[in-house]
Structure formats: C-alpha cells, structure tokens
TrEMBL record:
Residues 298-311 have a biased composition (Low complexity). This is LysR family transcriptional regulator. Keywords: DNA-binding, Transcription, Transcription regulation. InterPro entries: LysR_HTH_N (IPR000847), LysR_subst-bd (IPR005119), WH-like_DNA-bd_sf (IPR036388), WH_DNA-bd_sf (IPR036390). It comes from Pseudaeromonas sharmana. The keyword Transport does not apply. Residues 7-63 form the HTH lysR-type domain. Coiled coil: none annotated. Belongs to the LysR transcriptional regulatory family. Residues 296-318 are annotated as: Disordered. It holds the Pfam family HTH_1.
Amino acid sequence: MFRPKSTLEQWRIFQAVVEFGGYAQAAEKLNKSQSSLNHAVAKLQLTLGVALLEVRGRKAFLTEEGEVFLRRAKQLTQQMEELELLAFNIHQGWEAEVAIAIELVHPRPLLNRALQHYYPKSRGTQLLLTDTVLTGSQEAIIERQADIVITGIVPKGYLGEPLSEITMLPVCHPLHPLAQIQNELTQSDLSHQLQIVIRDTGKEPQEVSGWLKADQRWTVNNFHEAIGVLLSGLGFAWLPQHLIDPLLQQGRLAQLALTESSARKFFTHLVIPNPEHLGPSARLLVDCIRNSHKSLATTTGSGTGSSVGSTLDPAHVP
C-alpha cells in the first residue's frame, strides 16, 4: 500500500511561500517562524528529489517543475478544504448524498435549470440522478428508492405537485406506409404495424396505460433510441413533442392522424416519498425544482390517487 512521504502541511507552506511572495511574508501570514517554513520546503524538495523553488538573492522563484507542482498542490488543499467542509455539513445534518428519480419523459432543460441554481448552494452534496419509466417511477416512490421523484403517475396515498405538461404524439418516418394513408388511422391500422416502446424500468412492469395493442413491439431503453429506429424507416411510436418538434419541422418525422386521439396530454409531478426524513440539501433542491418550473396552482394526488397525471392517459412510453 502506498504511503505518502510528504505532508499536507508541507504542501500548504510551499503554496503560501509562492502566493505571499516569499518566506518572510508567508511566515507572517501563517503565524510561523521563517526558519520553520524554510525547513518544511527544503525537506519537501529533498523528499521529492525535485527543485520547486530557486533562490535568487533574497527572493525565491518557482522552477518550471515547481509551477506544475503548485497547480497540483492547490487542487490538493482545495480537496482537503472540501472534505472538512463536507464533514462539518454532515455534522450539521446536511446530507452527503441526495437521490432523485426522474421520469424519462420529463423535459430536462427545466430540471437542468434547477440544478444550476442548486449547485452553488449544495455544499458538496453528491447527487444521484436515475432515469425511471412508468412502474419504475412508482416503485421509486413506494419503495422510497429516492429522496425526490419526478413521475407521470402519482401512486395512491402520495401527494404530487404538477411540474410540466407533456404532449405525446404518434409519429413515424415520412416514407413509412402509415404516413402514406390519406384518411385518419384507426386502431386496426396501427395494430398490424411495428410499435417502438420504451422499456419500463420497474422490477415488475405493469402495462396499465397507453396504447399497446400492436401485434409486434420492439422495446428500447430511451426516446433517443426510439427516434433512431423511426428515422431508419421502421415502426411508429408515441414520443414527447418537446423532443421531436425539430424533427417534425424538418420533415424527418411525420405525425399520424388518428380517429381516436392524435395527441395525449398529462402532467409530470414532483413527489417526496418520505417528507419527514427530507434533509436540508434535498429541501433546497426541491425549492430549486419548484422555482425552475412554471407555477401550477393546484397540488394534486390525494389519498385516492387521482390527479391530473392519472386522470389523463399517461401514455408516454408506448
């Protein structure tokens, strides 16, 4: 096992000598004797076998090697400060890690804006972000796999705060046979075609929502894989409008007109699975998420499980 021969204090003194312009100035700032600083840097150079400082007259100058080591020394002292700050924050009840599960369909620019506001105040908290789909999102809530969950369906007994309205559109390649049909399409028309669906991340997936009656289905892990398959000319899929609008405008994908419904809408919700155990860092992140999304007046999802997201058909992955 590797054991360092130099000490953090030696690196701190070396950095101070350079930053404050000499041994005398560094000694005054660090409240140490100049001789102790000279000894610490000399021992550091001897241990490394590398000259870090070159004395010219009464001043010490960085060598080329010293410039490289100085940059690394700054990183080292910064990491040590962050470790001690993390320990202090944990002692004060600040979480070392916050887990957030995000329904794959949720618009990421809105979430990223929240993370931008959260990061400067996070005090070193590690974020664990996990993509979930359908049953997987519900499991993250019920089994308390995450501190914060953004979901399309609010399970019974939990409160959900609406965040973003999602519009799902049925689409295919412009040259696909479905796109060539002039009349509105029926369920029968779709049932004989290949449907691209997104994998449900739940341990026990339950096909309880969405149109899943195609004779043949291919399952992919995310929307970008689904789009890739569609662009190759294969199949159709229900995809979020905020992801495919540019492709529709460019004519690379075509929206299908259905007799029953050519668009489906639902809300994603912010759910706190265990509010009583939510720590200060997680609460800060919740506030950032709320502030980054457009305000929706009604908080939904009572003990009956009915909400905006569950009364509308959340068919966001079929």
